[in-house]
Amino acid sequence: MNKFVCVHIGFEKPTPEIMEAGGQWFESINDSTVENIGFRGGK
After folding, report:
1. H or E stretch including 16?
2. Phi, psi at residue 30, to the nearest 5°?
């Protein structure tokens, strides 16, 4: 089984619309994911 990582690196805080669209996208692929850790703050 192939495994892939989806990483997002951003410099601006996403708008509520972008966060909602991202959440909907993650929900749409939920059946295909092995592990979903969600959004996390970085340093």
Report:
1. helix 16-28
2. -55, -40
**What gap in Å lies between CA 5 and CA 12, rounded to an integer?**
22
The one-character DSSP state at 14 is P
Tell me the two tokens of residue 35: 């592990």
Helix, coil or strand: residue 21: helix
Tell me: the pLDDT tens digits for 5-42? 777 777 788 899 988 998 898 889 888 777 766 666 65
- Rounded to an integer, what distance in angstroms lies between the CA atom of residue 26 and that of residue 34? 12
Task: Classify 15 as helix, strand or coil.
Answer: coil
Q: What is the DSSP string of 22-37?
A: HHHHHHHTGGG-S---
